[in-house]
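Researcher: I've been going back and forth with a colleague about how CUB domain-containing protein might be arranged in three dimensions. Neither of us has a model we trust, so I'd like an independent prediction. The organism is Panagrolaimus sp. PS1159, in case that matters for your notes. Sequence below.
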Amino acid sequence: MFQWQQNICAASIIFCIILFISDSDATLKLSKCKKALFDHKNGTFYSVGFPKPILPPQCFIYHFEASLEYFVEVEIETAEIPSSIGDFCVDFLRIYEEEKDGTIDDGSINYRELCGKSNLLENRNFISAFNHLFIVINVETSQSVRIKGSYHLLSKADYYIDALKTAPDICEYQVNALKGQLVSPQYPYYSPPNISCTYHFPSFRGHRLHLNITVLDLSKRTCSESQLSLYRLNPRRILERLCSSIDIPYTFSSIQELLLEFRTSSLKRQTRGFQLSFEYIPIKLQIQPSTNSTTTSQQQLSAETPSQLWSIILEKQGGGIDINGQQQSAVVSQCPVRIISSRASFPIYEESMTPSSNNSGVLSSEHFVPSEKVNFKCQFVFIGAPEEHVQITFRKFQLFAWKDKGVNSTSELRCEEMDHVSAHVLVGSRMSKIYDFCGSEIPPPLMSAKNILTLDYIVKSIGNGRHIDVEDDYGFVIEYRFLPDWGKQPPEVSKDPSKPCAYTFNGTVQTSGQFWSPNHPGFYPRNLDCEYVFFGKDTQIVVIHFEYFDIEGFGQCEDATHSDYVLFSNYKTIDRTNRRYCGSLRPNGDIPSESNYFRMAFRTNDIFDGTGFYAQYQFIDQRKIFLQTLL
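Model: Here is an independent structure prediction for CUB domain-containing protein. You can compare it with whatever you and your colleague have in mind.
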């Protein structure tokens, strides 16, 4: 900086900042930057003198070069650059991903300029559109800039499409293989803005299509900006609309003709798109005499040992059974449907498990409805590994219900007398019913206490005068997951690995937050024994306030009533004060601890089901409160 510039800066800090920005923009010439070439298959890179910061003013160009058969991927592991001043980055990192000829100059405009912690945290991975990638590091004023990262090459041969393009100027593809993969346009680089692509999956007789989405990178703003939609054809009806919030990998299976549609927003470099694999798997159809119905199997479960239990649930049964006891045709003999966690291991039944082995996915009932217009029952059995729990979330639920007000009026029929879905979970060595769901109200999420959950889909309306319309959209769509724990809890919580359901909140980590019962807002699992422990500083107490409370129980929640309950204790040993809450005995107002230790137990039985609780916690410093009262 010149002497006259120093004098102005001393008089006006704001003017000095503007001057720095103008001066840096004016003097940055890429031709004067120091250059480094990285042309290996993988490696690491650092700023000069790392871990020490770069001494200003300096600029560097890192050129990552590959042969034409590769893309370049760079990951920024450490990036310490001051935040912008207004809309300007004084010190910055520039990424050039779209340079095709291997050179950049002051006229190159397709770059991203990054600075500041939040900006750099959101942008750590960069992939070239071609076989060159450039990083420009410019340091004008700061003495804290330092960079560290790694790079490797991605083979273009790994990103192929097993489908035929149906028209040269339209993004439409027809799948023509029994097994393969699909990727979005330009993947793994960003998808072009404002595109709409379709991928047609035909149905093959005697085969079931399995889709496994392994990558889904969409706009995180709204689902309307960019999405991946799955449609059933003839008639066209949407089955799933996938956004950036879903868990990956994501699986889907169907015996029907499907259409996959991929759309992007108008913004550039927002969406990398998707990568998926697909396979048409032969359906093994076996017809056996209808000697073992689903109901018979469930009655037997209560008398079986756990080892015998598996053989009953995994038993290879024949075609679907209608509720009048008639055998259905081989074309629809897909029931019972067994969905097995990929972490489960049952060697004896491995052959039957293979077609439906995964950790999460979506299942639509319409793929299992018989072609004949008859009443029917179909059972869906979800089996996890021994320590897993099954979680079911209903995405769609619309079962037929009589609309008239005559004898068969819906208001005069119990749920079990109509079309309904009956949910059961394994409790001890028996299957116990959770609930019967009917009508159009979306059921709450379900979670098993152990590793088995079943859904019975029972249709009774077809044989009772119901008119069948081709446009009927009755049935349900569920998302299932096999979880190794009791589901999501706040990020600040620590889990006790020695206990199945124990969470600790530390006042030195976070002073306030939320916590909730397993599977909330759905039904909490049965036979739970959960513990929520709050540890504060020596001067802290913790205050808990319930915003929602639905714990099934009676009276004072004594053991004799078999109530579910929550129990608060100020001691690590048994607390004789017995502050239990359940049913109509709800916590009113705030519940404070007596010291910096507070423990809440949540226990459920094998009988009742509720939607649990949602609560706020806050660690309060008593010393500060005391000092405030003195002022």
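Researcher: What would you highlight for our discussion?
Model: I'd start with this: The longest strand covers residues 70-80. After that, consider the following. The mean pLDDT is 79.
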